[in-house]
Structure formats: structure tokens, C-alpha cells
Amino acid sequence: MKIALGSDHGGYSLKQSLVPFLQQRDIEVADAGTNSEASVDYPDFAERVALLVTQGEADAGILVCGTGIGISIAANKVPGIRAALVTDTFMARMAKEHNNANVLVLGGRVLDEQKACDLVGAWLDATFEGGRHQGRLDKITEIEIKYR
Ligand code: RB5
Fold first, then answer.
1. pLDDT tens digit sequence for 77-112
2. In the predicted model, what is the mean pLDDT of residues 20-47?
3. Atom 7 of ligand 1 has which residue's CA nearest to it?
């Protein structure tokens, strides 16, 4: 499995701390930046990770900005992306089981390293339930097409 990782400066430190956690799980990491604490614009990194996922170069993505809000809004503008901002393990699990989120979003100024790893683990370990939830995802796709 390959996961694309991206952040702005507000999420840089937390993004870096996720790399060994993912590698310990034998997950290949595609680091889309940013690469320092220097100020950058979160939409640039949201777009990079979103495209890696929608173009099939990564199986899923993880994005981090200060709160997770801006970078999730930006990622969700890319058709086919279901980016879920989560703050607890229930949300992280539901993001996969019900929403089949292909991008997990975290707040670097909200979570400590351990909590962030717990959330990523809950999302990775969960399985999409399909069924009625697939029907709802299909409706999201219909909205994307309708307002393209
Ligand atoms: C950057 O200062 C901050 O606005 C950004 O990381 C994020 O929190 C935006 O939603």
C-alpha cells in the first residue's frame, strides 16, 4: 500500500511524525511536501495529494494543516476525493466504514503525535461497509457531475 502525505507549515511537524508510523506498517510513503516550517499555502499540497490519489499513484492520502479545515476544504474540490477531517478514533473509523474516505485529514495544531497515529491506525484498520453507504457515495458523485 502506498499513501501520499502532504501538509502546509502548520502540519509539517505532525506529517513528519507519521512517516515512521506508516513505514512500520509496511506502507510506502509518497511525501508531497511541504518540507519545512516555512509558510506555504495549504491548497497547493491538498491538490498534490488529491491528484496522486485520483490518478492512482497512491492508494490513499493523508493531509495535515494547522486545523485540518482549510486543507480538507481544498482537497474536496478535486472530483473523486472524499477527504475526512477527524479528531477522534470513532470519526476516523467511520470515515472509512461509512464514507470510504480516500484522504484522512488531521490538524497539526490540534493533535499530539500519539493521538494522530491512533487516528491514522483506526482509519487504516477499518473497512468500508458498502451497501446503503455506497448508494450515498454515488449521490456525492452525482453532485460532482451535476455542478462540474
Ligand atoms: C496556516 O496558518 C493555517 O491557516 C492553516 O494551517 C490551516 O489551519 C488552515 O485551515
1. 999 999 999 999 999 999 999 999 999 999 999 999
2. 98
3. 66
For residue 54, what are the CA distances in angstroms to 23, 36, 48, 76, 89? 22, 26, 10, 12, 25
Does pTM surpass 0.90?
yes
CA 144 to ligand 1 centroid distance, Å: 26
Q: Which amino acid is at 35?
A: N
How high is the pLDDT of residue 111?
A: 98
- CATH dotted code for 2-146: 3.40.1400.10
Ligand 1 center–CA 78 separation, angstroms = 19
Mean pLDDT of the chain: 98
Sequence spans of domains, the chain: 2-146
Residues 24, 92: Cα–Cα separation, whole Å: 20
Residue type, 143: I
Catalytic site residues? 65, 98
Q: Using a 6 Å CB cutoff, which residues line ligand 1? A: 8, 10, 42, 65-67, 69-70
Q: Name the residue with the closest Cα to ligand 1, atom 10.
A: 70
